[in-house]
Amino acid sequence: MVALLAVLIMVGTGVAWGSVRSFEGGIFHFATAVLGAGRSEDGALDIMLVGMDSRTDAHGNPLAADELAQLHAGDDVATNTDTIILVRIPDNGRSATAISIPRDSYVQAPGFGMTKINGVYGEIKLDRMKELVENQGMDPLQAEPIAVEAGRNALIETVADLTGVTVDHYAEIGLLGFSLITDALGGVEVCLDNAVYEPLSGADFPAGWQRLDGPQALSFVRQRQGLPRGDLDRVVRQQAVMASLAHQVISGRTLSSPTTLSRLQNAIQRSVVISSGWEVMDFLKQLQKLAAGNVAFATIPVLAEDGWSDDGMQSVVRIDPAQVKDWVTGLLQDQAQGKTEKIAYTPDQTTAEVVNDTEINGLAAAVSDRLSAMGFGTGAVGNNDKAKVTETQVQAGTSDDLGAAAVAKELGGLPVVADASIPPGIVRVVLADDYAGPGSGLDGSLPRSGSDGTLPTAATVSQESADIEAALPSPVITAGSDDPKCVN
Predict the structure, then answer these.
(1) Which residue segment(s) compose the domain that 182 sits in?
(2) Residue 147 contacts residue 125 (beta carbons within 8 Å)
């Protein structure tokens, strides 16, 4: 998507459409029968972006030894789809949405059963190869493209079943392509909360802001060992890099020389695969509407990052397919309605004050700890010194405050009450005797008091907070900001 945005800027800087046609003709296309009709009822396009853990280019040619060494790619020949992102490009020019699916998500693959989603492509491809070569006697060179198409089709169907979204177009890129395109765009700016060193991926970066070249960016997005949330943090890194690159392109900060354009064209034509029937010219015209908007990156909700497969043999990311479909539907509805601020909302934008209007000692502190673990800012905690309430509520400056809605949802669906005296970015939770949500001890969480009447220990609160944080959805990252967030 970033590469195609760059092509759009090429057109805007005077490159003839004929040159773009020539450029498009040099991209590797493949045929598939499982994609949608090309556009949803509202005119939006749903595009599946796949990052392959491959040691070949788009045409199947093996990478040279020096390229493998530079990319820290090793000699693994597995065909894993380690990055899967579903992008909706709206027809109305409002914010696009990019939804990441963690590589270890444990899913139902059509005709295959439960497996990690990153293995669907490779496993189906391998099964099809064996059938064609061993059972039907087909030449491996002839069987290869048929098996690859089977793998791609299976992955497309799996993502469509999981999200409830019909995929219209498909784009695939390998390790080399990611590095080449990043270099062609002049590198990428990222920010780390802490310094990292992880030899397997080649990640060796200081804390803070820095500009990475192609191979460094590849190490940055491939690292998952040593990260607090493993693959979920890696997904956030991928989103941060894509957001940064997209912002560079959208804001016109790249593509200032013919040399840059030539490098970009060569990188795309060598490393990108797209589905046949995708009219890139029409797509570029649609992107012209997006150029003034944002791209919001989000991750599907997960139940457990450290779950196990049904046979107990594999570590997987556990998800609830029904929850994922509902979440995707809600996110895309927000996008269709132009609620870009809702899509981009994250809990750290809200500070939650919690006040106690009950006789239960420590209740406000327990609820505040829970909200802090959920990512909300920690505000004042104490007893209610204002008007007494008869039911627990969340107060905010306006009744449609996004932070208030988020806090109310996390605490069990509390009502939101407008109070003009509360400044933007602040919400006040007022706890009454009816409260039975997180932190109350009535929801299976922390007890209100121990058997001897004492409050839970700080260690107990800290451990539960860590458990909550591990299960939280990843933050939403946008490509429309000059000051993106630092990441793990």
Answers:
(1) 2-344+474-478
(2) yes
